Amino acid sequence: MKKIENSIKRQIVVHAPLKQVWDALTKPEHLNNWYTKNADIDFCIGGSCYMNHGWGATSEGVFTEIDPMNRFVIRSQDGDFTTITSLEKVENGILVSIEYQASFISEMNQSTKENMLFGTSQFLENLKSVYETGIDNRAKIWRTWIGISHTTNDGNRGIKVLHVKEGSVAAAAGIEPEDIILEMDGEEIEGYESFERILNEKDINSNVLLTIESNSEKVHVNCLVDAYPVPY
Question: pTM score > 0.70 for this model?
């Protein structure tokens, strides 16, 4: 199958009835249980969709396609960003797929794509948690950071530091762009999501020991863990 360069996608299987999952994705009162802080939706072709996702992020669009219990499409107000949500019955539940299409996706850097996909994964995992166990994990995600932008270190393990925020705990620890972070407290970092998930398990104001490859030398750096800069 030919890869669509202007499209990225994430999927998860939810062990719940199809109608329940469909309602979770299309009804404001259900969306607020696992995804949005506030959703204002007119679920019909041409109807508007406003979502406050928390952490300072909002989105608006219009429903352009609705195939009940199967698929719906939201297009941004400027027409250049499309979100396609589809559901499929599989052997062990409902396969939920969320795909983003936009003319600029192929031009986005890898870090931005990874961040978008990671965010989608976080919410899909919370959908699964809420509808399989009744547990809403939003209070436990996006808790911590150290003040860097980063990307998976292509072809190797770890992440490559792209930018260090001035005044951040990472800057105070001496972390610099182009550094490769290989481990955190002895736990191997496999890539973008791995780093974010391991960091998010750490306590705010705790210290972590980072194993870093800097200028072809391996060093160990102690770094404070800071609170995520944008509250939920």
Answer: yes
